[in-house]
Amino acid sequence: MPKRENISMSVIRRLPRYYRFLNQLKRDGVTRISSTELSGKLGLTASQIRQDLNCFGGFGQQGYGYIVEQLAAEIGHILGVEHNYRTVLFGAGNLGRAIAAHMNFEQLGFELIGIFDDAPQKIGTVIRGMEVLNTACFENFCKEKKPEMAVLCIPRTAVEATVDRLYPLGIHNYWNFSHYDINMKYPNAVVENVHLNDSLLTLCYCISNAPEAQKPQKVQI
Amino acid sequence: MPKRENISMSVIRRLPRYYRFLNQLKRDGVTRISSTELSGKLGLTASQIRQDLNCFGGFGQQGYGYIVEQLAAEIGHILGVEHNYRTVLFGAGNLGRAIAAHMNFEQLGFELIGIFDDAPQKIGTVIRGMEVLNTACFENFCKEKKPEMAVLCIPRTAVEATVDRLYPLGIHNYWNFSHYDINMKYPNAVVENVHLNDSLLTLCYCISNAPEAQKPQKVQI
């Protein structure tokens, strides 16, 4: 049985990368890989990879390496991709539509079962073959479909009221694209934030503070 | 002059959060705030905040706190938001359209000056008042407009060839939504990755491994 205690977020955040990469190797027909080869391709040290995987019990064999398909399956299992958590998406604006259309939820542990908005011009439109439903009908939808996760693509100002409504309905897991900090009010909610503004500002810092050699140079054509 | 050496990425990644929050306070009419109040609202310790800001020279006054408008401006300056880096976006699919329409580039240090795609059905369509241009015309566009940053909303398989084309044109800064690792081939490129798949898989892990008390519960209505 894999050990799973006190695993740091940095290890956890590397797992999807391993998973993605191993699946790519599988598609490329690679059946076995050493931690040294894996490390070269991932830009991590071999010992880092061994340490990370050891957190979950370790999978390789000294001198033999990892069986790609098996390791991909094990990491998928650790991530929980087989759960297909029933997922609803709130906010059918530009971002919500893109997320609904773009993401392969079913390969990543989730099943998108409903898209909600309260703007009359959006209700009834179709995204990914799914009709956008009226947020007002959410309680009824819940009784029947029992969603477990909500993707929040709504404005920051609307998030608190939405979570106040969803949390008591048993939805405690959120993929949050707004800057509202759900855990301040609901410390037990499981929240993964995607802060696109912060990411862009971080890039702005890194460009502005890059060593001179890396600074944007004059265009040479 | 602010000191700016060896600042860790964790400190850098907290700056946008400070910036965002201080601007919110400014909009709310708050003029002064202590590091203790700031910490309560940000979920960090006061000493953490003081330490972070000290990396850049420190701004508060003992017993007086921070002047909100001044600190917001200073952090904005550290981030480099006044640069308005000329930005192009590649890929006018669902995600690219959403990013172009949704992001306030100009408040975050960038100016979106062109959107490119090579699909005939996308070229000429309008996003955010801007016509999608043919990727084939990019070199000419570059001569005139001299872009400094590229947002990549193209499939993973197309990224390498795109960066091979952009890098020699002087575009060394990337906001990358694909899973292609630009730094493996271009170690000096300044890259900020947004890995939405990894984020969703991390959430899947966190839900699957949440303490029992937090696990999705039966819907109660």
From TrEMBL, chains A, B:
Single GO cellular component term: cytoplasm
DNA-binding region as annotated in the record: 17-56
GO biological process terms on file: negative regulation of DNA-templated transcription; response to redox state
InterPro entries: CoA-bd, NAD(P)-bd_dom_sf, Rex_DNA-bd_C_dom, Tscrpt_rep_Rex, WH-like_DNA-bd_sf, WH_DNA-bd_sf
Major localization class: cytoplasm
Localization: Cytoplasm
A Pfam cross-reference name: Put_DNA-bind_N
Residues annotated as domain CoA-binding: 80-181
Gene Ontology MF: a single term: DNA-binding transcription factor activity
Annotated binding of NAD(+), by residue: 91-96
Alphabetical keyword list: Cytoplasm, DNA-binding, NAD, Repressor, Transcription, Transcription regulation
Subunit-structure text: Homodimer.
Described function: Modulates transcription in response to changes in cellular NADH/NAD(+) redox state.
Family: Belongs to the transcriptional regulatory Rex family.
Name listed for the protein in its UniProt record: Redox-sensing transcriptional repressor Rex
Classification lineage: Bacteria, Bacillati, Bacillota, Clostridia, Eubacteriales
Name of the gene: rex
